[in-house]
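Minutes, project check-in
Item: structure for the 365-residue chain
Input as provided by the requester:
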Amino acid sequence: MWTWCAPSKRRALAYARDGDVYFDLSKDDDYGKLSGQKLEELEAGARIETGERKDDPLDFALWKAAKPGEPSWDSPWGAGRPGWHIECSAMSLNILGEGFDIHGGARELVFPHHENEVAQSESFLDGRSFARVWWHCGELRVKGRKMSKSLGNFVTVRDGLKRQGPNVWRLLFLTTLPRSPLDYSESSLQQAANAWARLENALLPHSTQGQEDASRNIPNEQDSEAARAFRERFEAALSDDLNTPEALAAVFDAVSEWHRGHDDALANAARRALETLGFNLAPSDFAAGDDLTPRLLDLLITVRNEARERRDWKGADSIRNTLKEIGVALEDTPDGTQWKIERTAPTEMVQAEAVQSETVATQAS
């Protein structure tokens, strides 16, 4: 996932053939440093495609002569277009400059695309560093198939945020190792929503007293052994190749422990850990400054509890069911009745995904 790419020492080495320009891999001693590929292993089975005029099957194009009807630009070698890898080097160096911090991409691009990008870029830079760190993540899949525009099995950011909030999506992504593929489904998204609701209800209660507790800043001298042990586990997980599933497991275990002992220092440590991962723990279910809705819900809970004390089960159930219909779930716990906003995908969206999946399956068959 993380790859440190030290700068190499070499000069730009390329040759022209009838309007094409190729990078000469035989004169690049550092080729393969990003992917671990070796030239002698790549040469086995390599061949030159029909119409190519390069000296070696492994050499890659920096510039391609234009074919009839293709868009083209003038160059010292005639009309043509940049090679496949050139556009990324050009954009990166133009916008970020040489030696930028992180270059990202999917694991499938490590070879040959990123390997060639490093070779041509650092040759152009006369051996100076192109990108210091490379980040390669797993691909996003839908029902085991790669998410792609051509298959039509994709979800746009705009539509995704209509289904669930940013925190839920972030949780879904981080429960998988970054280098591993992630298989998206409506059920996995709902599982992430349920898991986030558990974290949110414990670490950011919506009641007035809960909000006051959540905003407390526990001084270091009041730190607890559980909080220190949690931080050590959380930081060790992130230091282990950014193991976000283990880091989140530590957070969930901390929440379970908090439920047993209500250790405020542990709760604060868990909140800060989630913020480190980019989660937003500010109350987001209501407009800024809206403290009336939580107070009204607490009032309804009080009315319901009074009905239960009178054994008015019908009235208590009516309040619970009505709140559920508008997306507010009640949970009776040893510490009292808690409420949470349920973020469930609208029925029409679930139906649309089912139709889309059926269409993709028909195309595949």
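Outcome recorded: The domain at 141-276 is CATH 1.10.730.10 (Isoleucyl-tRNA Synthetase; Domain 1).
No further action items on this chain.
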